[in-house]
Design goal:
269 residues, seven-stranded mixed beta sheet, 15 strands
């Protein structure tokens, strides 16, 4: 059997190294398909291309692995839609950063915060020709803290996804897993057009909870920071302290605001 890791960032790198160092998989039987923007340089996340080169793992294109019959393909933040009919294998799997069937598609570090979710999850599922609609094999759930930012949530995804990988990779290799059809209830999907990151506006005519969720959902310093009155926001802290409705106070190090229900939000700029 050959195993292909397709994707990016720490989750893909950690999975590849786990196969090499913990499962002692023969390097000749491991393949990597990198995302198109992987330049082979570690940044705030590890590069799968760099790791593969340093580990002497064969890097292929997606098209080059279609004809491998005894192949286990695992998508870990892969940037291309996988067409199952192109492959000669049916061992096609993905770890999606959400508690499926909720939050299929894009922006899984943003939408749960906008919606005030208290719990997140990662899901190992079979790949079909839909978008994150394949049968579920295993899930791992975790708490979302009220003051978690999009960046905080993303790193929780990374950590929990790697644990999910370690718990299930042997089952996938030995074909000793069960999969169940996704429910239609609580199933949600967000496309690339769901958010315009060039036009993020914080609506202050909301409850404090809603304002806080808008702010923290877009705090991800490597990509963007939300702004209020021209100030870039690095942290938002919601409290149950009542300070009166629609407050807005700019201080040296922070901004204190409240929504229509009067609860205090401390914003670090």
């Amino acid at each position: 059997m050959k195993i292909c890791i397709a994707g990016k960032n720490n989750i893909a790198v950690n999975a590849l190294l786990y196969l090499i160092n913990n499962l002692n998989f023969n390097r000749k039987d491991l393949l990597v398909v990198t995302n198109r923007n992987d330049e082979g340089i570690d940044t705030w996340q590890k590069s799968l291309k760099k790791c593969a080169i340093e580990s002497d793992i064969n890097i292929r294109t997606l098209e080059e692995i279609y004809d491998i019959e005894d192949l286990l393909f695992l998508s870990l933040e892969f940037d291309r839609i996988v067409r199952t009919d192109k492959f000669k294998t049916n061992k096609l799997f993905n770890i999606h950063f959400s508690n499926l069937p909720a939050y299929k598609g894009m922006f899984t570090s943003v939408m749960p915060l906008l919606n005030g979710e208290k719990q997140g999850g990662v899901t190992l599922h079979k790949i079909n020709n839909g978008i994150d609609t394949g049968d579920i094999i295993s899930q791992k759930l975790f708490d979302i803290d009220i003051n978690d930012t999009a960046r905080d949530l993303y790193f929780k995804y990374l950590d929990n996804a790697f644990e999910l990988f370690k718990e299930n990779i042997t089952k996938l290799i030995e074909n000793k897993f069960e999969a169940k059809k996704q429910s239609c209830y609580n199933s949600t999907y967000y496309s690339k057009s769901a958010i315009d990151f060039q036009n993020i506006k914080i609506d202050l005519n909301k409850t404090s909870f809603e304002i806080h969720n808008q702010i923290r959902a877009f705090i991800f310093k490597e990509y963007q920071l939300p702004t209020i009155n021209g100030f870039k926001i690095e942290k938002s802290i919601l409290t149950d302290e009542y300070i009166g409705r629609n407050k807005f106070e700019i201080n040296k190090d922070n901004i204190i605001i409240s929504g229509i229900d009067g609860y205090k939000i401390c914003i670090v700029k």
